Amino acid sequence: MSNTATEEQVLQREVTRLEAEGYDVFVQPRAPLVPEFLGDYVPDAVATGHGKKIVLEVARSLGSEKLKDVAALFAKQREWELKILLVSPTSSAKTVPVQSRQAIDGAIEEIEQLEQLNALRSAFLLAWATFEAEGRAAVAGTFDRPQTPGRLVQILSQEGLLTPTEADRMRTLSELRNQLVHGDLGTEIKSEDLLWLVGVLRKMAAPDYITTSPAI
Q1: Does pTM top 0.85 for this prediction?
Q2: What is the CATH code for 7-86?
Q3: Computed from CA positions of residues 142, 148, 137, 198, in that sequence, does the dihedral angle turn out positive or negative?
Q4: Which residue among 3, 97, 104, 169 sits deepest, i.e. has the most Cβ atoms within 10 Å of its Cβ?
């Protein structure tokens, strides 16, 4: 594993490996793919096949309280197993700086300009980049490194920065984001989805949502 591997890269490698072995893998799954005993918790991925049902969770440490709580849910489960994918800690791993409000507002304006030019896929990818930047600015110290869309949505929902309805739609749109990022150039982006996403970005860019000091 590369020392600079991100959560998304680690997850994608495991997804690729499992699919090559004949498993069906669902990234950021929703009901009914998520086992009922997990409640509202959305795992990073679910894999089924060869008589197995596996929940995949990416983590940088085994000591987090969230991970301990999730692992405890599997203690009495016979049908499902939890597989934790650890991202190797490294002092050389680059952190991503918090963006200023001016930079975030400028990115949103650029997204809207791209939408007017009908460059929907470019605008959509920039929107997801801006969404991560806003999350990093809104929740201090939580998103210091590159994030998977699933973790972004999960934590921002837990923090009350996304409503349950918004979180569900963001998870659906993240599937399109993943397709584009990983080279599916035929992925179609609808203007209505992009404009809805811009609305979420503008809501999160409001002063009450940006809680950390802007980067200088």
Answers
A1: no
A2: 3.40.1350.10
A3: negative
A4: 104
